[in-house]
Predict the 3D structure of the following.
Amino acid sequence: MKQKPPEINFLTRQRTLFMLQSKRMYLIQMLSFGTLIAYGFVLLSLVSYSAYLGYRLTQTNKGIDQEKKTLERLSSMEVQYYGLKNKSEKILGVYNSLYQHQETMDLVFKILPSDLEVQSFSVDEEGDLTFSASTPKIESIGTLFENIQQYQTYQSLQIENVTVNNISVNDLGEYSFGITIKLGTKTTS
């Protein structure tokens, strides 16, 4: 009998190796394709986000431009407002000054006795009263000082200090004198 020579089939082994290699290639291709898709998704997301940020930036710039226009329109009103505010503050200052001088004049008429003859009268910037007067009766000078004591505080004014600048008697027995009265505002307690 003749023996058959053994069959050696190298194709099967090659075919198995080829199948393994083709599976590896397929797996590598699929992983590469998946990575490429993931990379494309990330890239698309970044481009979309960049476009969104550009749109938001455009909208924000439009809003800023609108607000600038509004501010420009309001700036002229602001100038007018501050002008009116400054004028009203000055008018209020003048009014308060007149009111304070009215109180000062009321105080002067309260403290001066009726038989004193006032020769000069002035109120300086600090609110100090300076006047000179004369009277034939020395009692009138005493009455003046009693009235000063009585009206030491009057409305919003307060007499802080009284200085007799001079006093004299002439040949007819008439008394002449000068007084400075320092006024301040009443302190609330």
Q: What stands out?
A: The mean pLDDT is 84. DSSP finds two helices and five strands in the chain. The first helix runs from residue 10 to 111.
